[in-house]
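anyone seen this seq b4? input:
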Amino acid sequence: MTKSDHRYIRNADCQYFPCHKVADDSFFNCLFCFCPLYWLENCGGNPGYREGIKDCTGCTLPHKPGGYEHVIERLKQEIGQRRAKHHQEGAKGDASPGAPMDEG
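predicted toks r here
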């Protein structure tokens, strides 16, 4: 990964930069400022929970080198699983072909 790569953006001018404590912020990736895996129970990161709410303050997974690849791969897996579930439900007659997928 290089600083001119489509998988990387650094916004050192952001008032929250860096939003996580890291030893070296020279390659801190701001591309996923809000992690697209937040909604997943098993995101692959190391979130904590505060009063039942997911807290990603201690997780730097999407900001590290290789974070982009992890996020994209994990999203592909989740979409594939949901697509397979949707097709199985359609085969059972629970959903008509072409019906929108359940987002919940």
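The longest strand covers residues 48-50. The first helix runs from residue 67 to 91. kinda curious what u guys think
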